[in-house]
Amino acid sequence: MLPAHLRMLARLGNGEVTMQVDGPVTQRSILDALEAQYPMLRGTIRDHVTKQRRPFVRFFACEEDLSHEPPDAPLPEAVLSGTEPFMIVGAMAGG
Length: 95
Hints:
Layout: H1 4-10, H2 27-37, E1 57-61, E2 64-65, H3 77-81, E3 87-90
Antiparallel strand pairs: 1-2, 1-3
């Protein structure tokens, strides 16, 4: 699931993307597949060069903040099976 501003950029109605990921399902493999399917999102979620998560972008799954997990750490089984989404959330600052 994508935040509203990225939905508009990728021209997605509800922000939900379903995709097939080859190999281990990790943050990195999901983002690689997402950017391959929607090239207009390259550089919006993570830096072009370093591939580090951009400030104010958070990753959630199974009600857990996975933003600071290693990008190659396996995601929860519920995400793999499709029963829970991997969510990309735009965080806000300043109250």
